[in-house]
Amino acid sequence: MSETTNLNIAVIGAGPGGYAAAFLAADLGMSVTLIDPELNPGGVCLYRGCIPSKALLHVAKLIEESHQAKDWGIDFAPPKIDLARLRGWKENVVKKLTGGLGVLSKQRKVRYLQGRAAFESSTTLHVTRADGSGESLAFDRVILATGSRPAIVPALKLETPRMMDSTGALNLEDIPGTLLVVGGGYIGLELGSVYAALGTRVTVVEMLPGLLPGADRDLVLPLHKRLEKMLDGILLNTTVASVKDEGSGIRATLKTQDGATQEKVFDRVLVSVGRKPNSEISGLDKTRVQVGPRGFIQVNKQLQTDDPDIYAVGDAVGEPMLAHKAMHEGRTAVEAIAGHKVAFEPNAIPAVVFTDPEVAWCGLTETQAQNENREVKVAKFPWAASGRAITLDRPEGMTKLLIDPQTERVLGVGIVGVGAGEMIAEGVLAIEMAALAKDIALTIHPHPTLSETVMESAEVFFGTSTDIYRPKRG
Ligand code: NAD
Known about the structure:
Blueprint: E1 8-12, H1 16-27, E2 31-36, H2 43-48, H3 50-68, H4 83-107, E3 111-121, E4 124-129, E5 134-138, E6 141-144, E7 148-150, E8 163-164, H5 166-171, E9 178-182, H6 186-198, E10 201-205, H7 217-230, E11 233-235, E12 238-245, E13 250-256, E14 261-266, E15 268-271, E16 275-277, E17 310-312, H8 323-337, E18 351-353, E19 358-363, H9 366-371, E20 377-382, H10 387-391, E21 398-403, E22 410-417, H11 420-432, H12 437-442, H13 452-462
Parallel strand pairs: 1-2, 1-6, 2-3, 6-17, 8-15, 9-10, 9-15, 10-11
Antiparallel strand pairs: 3-4, 4-5, 7-16, 12-13, 13-14, 18-19, 19-22, 20-21, 21-22
Helix pairs in contact: 1-8, 3-4, 3-6
The structure holds nicotinamide-adenine-dinucleotide.
């Protein structure tokens, strides 16, 4: 293995893909410049995405649980919400983490430039700093980690603070009386849940026949049922044909698939219909980098673009647009640059929707298996049979394994329920380690925990689960 570590590297974009790449490059001994418009590294994930939304979802869960506590004989008074303090707490979480990354950059002697980069050639960048000053810098290699931004629907373009994308919604300017959420995906359901818990009457419209189109239907069902109780309405097969600012609210025309329309006025509207890659980088036409028809920068398995000196990682290169995928790509790109024999070809990338209950999956999904006509055995363990789930009064969850009938290898894992996002990591490890259903069944899981449901679903596959009874077939 030949190693090249005396290189001078630029990383454009300091989100999880960019800072992971920059830090590893520095750890391998490269000279690293990290360029981003924010004061510190963090990107969308830390400043306006994963981190602030998870802080708010934690609060939402607490409020929801305080309502449920009535069933357990504990009656809390309705919460008094100090919005300024809640916002302040969320901002402190962001500051702590982004500040921490700033310190880590300094400790690694990464040169952090707060500014924007434009290509002058494949290996020369012009960086315009936040204070307006600029400089041209030459590098051996450049890594693009420019991320993504919210997609815009032309019919929903309206210049008013009442219309929000995820950034606006996370700013939490007020607790609106009513909120229309356009798009029942990750962001719509996570932030819709936050506002609903804070007291807003939330309506979600989703153009497809079900929420979270990427997830298996049986995983979405328990979430859908709980959301039906929390939200004012979930309108499927529905889009928003137009919006009009009426001063005191936004009048939205909701249109179902069969053409029926209805008008409703909302205090605020959150548009969460997907994200677009940030691939319109200034001066990119001076390089050999190719951008595909959907706007993703084209890369090979080493994350190298068509320009051999330029690599690209994260949301800008393709789905799934998830921070953990970006981080691993960032590290792979750096290793490839260093001359290591590497490729980004994971068997499983976990997806987690941080609603309540959480929905998480990795590897093959049942829907995908059906679409590909792939024969799989599905073993499901209902949480109604889990002691831990009952003690939490959350029996609606379910854990399932997708298993290859010939080899008995675990190909996919899906979990819905509280804590599913933490538990899915075991599924990822199982898939990456090529675990067999027997390996999982024989792995002693601690009792009483929700993690036992993973082991129990493997037992379901063999028809020997201790906690449920399935008469043998035939
Ligand atoms: P999404 O792709 O998850 O969901 C968008 C939804 O909007 C889909 O269900 C789609 O069918 C629907 N839609 C599209 N156009 C519509 C229209 N005109 N009217 C009604 N519905 C419409 O996208 P998102 O929620 O905006 O999130 C963007 C991305 O950000 C995600 O795909 C994910 O990669 C990432 N993200 C991840 C997390 C997480 O990991 N927990 C959280 C938030 C965002």
